[in-house]
Amino acid sequence: MIKTVITYPDKRLKEVSAPVETFDNDLHIILDDMYETMMSQNGVGLAAIQVALPIRVLILNIPDEEGEQPKENLIEMINPTILTTAGETTYQEGCLSVPGFYEDITRFETVSVEYFDRDGEKKLLEADQLLSVAIQHEMDHLEGKLFIEKLSYAKRKKFEKELKKQIRDNKKAS
Ligand code: Y12
Ligand code: CO
Questions:
Q1: Of the candidates 37, 114, 36, which has an alpha carbon nearest to the alpha carbon of residue 78?
Q2: Closest-lying ligand 1 atom to the alpha carbon of residue 92
Q3: Residue 125: is it exposed, middle or buried by C-beta count within 10 angstroms (0-12/13-18/19+)?
Q4: Distance 35 CA to ligand 1 centre (A)
Q5: pLDDT tier, 142 (very low <50, low <70, confident <90, very high otherwise)
Q6: How far apart are CA 79 and CA 57, in angstroms?
Q7: Which of 37, 42, 148 maximizes ligand 1 atoms within 8 Å of its Cβ, making it the mutation to test the pocket?
Q8: Measured in angstroms, how far is the CA atom of residue 110 from the centroid of ligand 1?
Q9: First-to-last CA distance in the chain?
Q10: Could you tell me which of 167, 165, 57 has the C-alpha nearest to residue 117?
Q11: What are phi and psi of 152, to 5 degrees?
Q12: What distance in Å separates the CA atoms of residue 135 and residue 84, rounded to the nearest whole number?
């Protein structure tokens, strides 16, 4: 089922998510709903808190060279932990919870992550490029952090201005 994605400045996005304790059918339904929701909005990553569930769950489906997102490439991470990081990279990020705003953000170039899959099996992933950036972006959601909090003062002001304009335009249209 497609869920509503909550958007900034909804206070629930600031919640720190709690670890998953049980890897049961309820968790599988949440993961399936998150996948449907993310794909319905052309997303490449989604954390559970974005559908108002404060649990340490995230999904990623990075486009391949053809720009396709086959379901075989879907990665589901439960209770992820970053083990190692290296380097620095800057990528233009966007977020389904901050629609219409994209900005350059600097993060680690590579990360290794330990996580559990939907069946509670422990996994280890070494990620670089877009996957590494997306993992860090989604893991920030688990701590109640949004990418806009990483912006410089000037860029944050630009964002606040664009948000006010969006709100004004939405009011006019309704
Ligand atoms: C690199 C950087 C950040 C991530 C996190 C995941 N972000 C997304 O999946 C964002 C998707 C997104 C999609 C939108 O909708 C369309 O493009 C149709 C969108 O909507 C508007 O801008 C109106 C905003 C964000 C992964 C990798
Ligand atoms: Co996001």
A1: 114
A2: 2
A3: middle
A4: 14
A5: very high
A6: 6
A7: 42
A8: 21
A9: 27
A10: 57
A11: -65, 165
A12: 13
CA–CA separation, 169 and 151 (whole Å): 24
Could you give the C-alpha distances from 64 to 13, 106, 156, in angstroms and in order? Answer: 29, 22, 31
The residues facing 111 across adjacent strands are 85, 127
- Residue from 95, 109, 170 to probe ligand 1 pocket by mutation (most atoms less than 8 Å from CB): 95
Contact 61, 76 (CB under 8 A): no
Closest CA to 58 of 3, 124, 140: 140
Instruction: Report, as residue numbers or ranges, the catalytic residues.
Output: 138
pLDDT for 28-76, tens place per residue? 999 999 999 999 999 999 999 999 999 999 999 999 999 999 999 999 9
Q: What is the DSSP letter of 69?
A: -
